[in-house]
Amino acid sequence: MFKAMTMIDVKISSVPFTTIEPNVGVGYVIINCVCKEFGVTCKPNHGFCKNGKRFVPVKIVDVAGLVPGAHEGRGLGNQFLDDLRQASALVHIVDATGETDAEGKPGEGDPQKDIEFLEKEIDLWFASVIGRALKKFEKQIAKAGKSDLLNILSEQLTGLEIKKFDVERALKKIDELGLELDLKNKESIVTFARELRRISKPIIIAANKIDLSKAQENFQTLKEKYGDAAPLIPTSAEAEIALKRADEKEFIDYLPGNSFTTKADLNEQQRKALEFIKLRILGKYGSTGVQQCLDKAVFELLGNIVVYPVADRNKLSDKDGRVLPDALIVPSGMTVKELAYKVHSDLGDKFICGVDVRTKRKLAADYELKNGDVVEIAFAK
Q1: Which uninterrupted H or E stretch holds 290?
Q2: d(C-alpha 187, C-alpha 27), whole Å
Q3: How many CB atoms are located within 10 Å of the residue 326 CB?
Q4: I want to staple 16 with a disulfide (CB 3.0 to 4.6 A). Which of 53, 104, 232, 282 is the partner?
């Protein structure tokens, strides 16, 4: 799956713990670029643009597989969980055929149990960190109000890359459930940990090997079990790699997440392989699912948008003349002044206003950006 997302050559094997040290690479979310709307040719600083489709880079980390008991240090558990803390969202790759057991070995497995045990392991890991924090500050928390508890937890959980707002939402959730976060109440700690994990590390389930009949049967069972409660995407990493390789060799024209058109004469083996992918995967599921995992994680699970800051509203360029140089992935609700700081701290410090390139309207510091906004930032020189 990592190779399908990044096309970086990595060791691929059915042997457990083929991945030990994390593989780190770049994949791309794909959006409609505003270049077509403005009738210009863009020159991205990062990523690229192809036929009006902007490929915006995102960092992808492939970590070692998890086994039951990982939160207690089994397998590569501690290392896995340490690598995982840096992530904004997770894509859990599940062998939908059920032909891999809980230890990652070929054998009898259950995709549903794979999903449940991974979530449970992360929940218990979170709970252990939270439990230690509560114990460390037990006397202080006993006297503290809710705001003090929020501050203590937020400070102790920064190592997990968890924001204060996430902690606040999770505390509110256990309040709604009628529970109180208490060192002596393991149920409330685990419930809080589960809610915090759902908020701070949302998970997409990639039901992989969907080209195989057994996987298709199990996928239907998973759909019936989870419905819309979990983002569940049928995927075929092997098919995605095959399509991207064929596109690189100019045998086909392929936009990830879509179907393809044939461009060159193919031999019998190539033709049959592509027909199989088109009929059994694209025809049935619409895509290989790999691109959907990335796009859904970045935009739906994390609620991000894409905006285009420029230095010259008339030329749509930066100070060096590059047209639409940056397509930035930012959180929904980000203000134009926060965008200024994201581009450069000096822009934020000397911020005057933003300018909507489409309407030429001035934007106040607290204007909340919308997806696709093209903005010039005016600042004191």
Answers
A1: helix 290-295
A2: 39
A3: 19
A4: 104
d(CA 24, CA 14): 20
Q: Quick check: 27 and 57 in contact, CB under 8 A?
A: yes
The alpha carbon of residue 165 and the mean position of all alpha carbons in its chain are separated, in whole angstroms, by 19
Contact between 40 and 11 (Cβ < 8 Å): no
Whole-number Å distance between alpha carbons of 240 and 347: 41
Whether 196 and 150 have beta carbons less than 8 Å apart is answered as: no
Cβ of 28: how many Cβ atoms within 10 Å? 21
In this prediction the pTM is 0.88
- Determine what percent of the chain is predicted with pLDDT higher than 90: 65
| pLDDT per residue as tens digits for the range 262-285 | 998 999 999 999 999 999 999 999
Highest mean pLDDT among 104-113, 165-174, 239-248: 239-248
Burial degree of 201 (CB within 10 A; 0-12, 13-18, 19+): buried
Cα separation of 10 and 19, whole Å? 9
Confidence of residue 174 (pLDDT cuts 50, 70, 90): confident
Show the domains of the chain with their CATH numbers.
Answer: 2-22+63-118+203-298 (3.40.50), 305-379 (3.10.20.30)
> Which alpha helices (DSSP H) does 39-145 contain, by range?
77-84, 111-136, 138-143
Q: Are 67 and 120 in contact (CB under 8 A)?
A: no
* Contacts of the segment 155-163: beta carbons below 8 A, 24+ positions apart: 156/129, 156/130, 157/129, 157/130, 157/133, 157/196, 159/85, 159/129, 160/85, 160/126, 160/129, 160/200, 161/85, 161/86, 161/87, 161/88, 161/200, 162/196, 162/200, 163/200
Residue 1 contacts residue 63 (beta carbons within 8 Å): no
pLDDT digits (tens, 9 = 90+) for 120-170: 888 988 888 888 888 887 777 677 666 678 888 888 888 788 889 999 999
- For the beta sheet containing 232-234, the strands, ordered from the edge strand earlier in sequence to the opposite edge, are 90-95, 203-208, 232-234
88: confidence class by pLDDT, cuts 50, 70, 90? very high
